[in-house]
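#struct-help
A.M.: can someone run this one for me? Single chain, 109 residues.
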Amino acid sequence: MNWKELSSVEELDKLIDSPNAVFALFKHSTRCAISAVAKKRLELSWEKQNPEIPIYYIDLIQNRTLSNYIAEKFNVMHESPQLILLRNGQSIYHASHLSINPKSIATYK
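D.P.: on it. Structure tokens below:
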């Protein structure tokens, strides 16, 4: 799994401003067992299901400000773990906890 780490609002805004950008955000708590399970599920099947979609990892313990910004900007309630798919600066899919499933993304490509 090729995680790209995201740690600032500025980094996210650059991604959003990229033309035709499609990417996913995975908000992960290193203190949560359910988050660890969701992360492992992504690692086992993301590249098989969604190889063309970059996925960005956000450590919620270290980057709470970024997480709050995401919740406000995309009008998505903060949850952990959480997967959000973005296209052209808009949230088009989100799931949390054990509802996170890389196969679900396929219908939004």
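A.M.: thanks! The chain has one domain: 4-108.
D.P.: also worth noting: The beta strands are 4-5, 22-28, 55-59, 82-87, 90-96.
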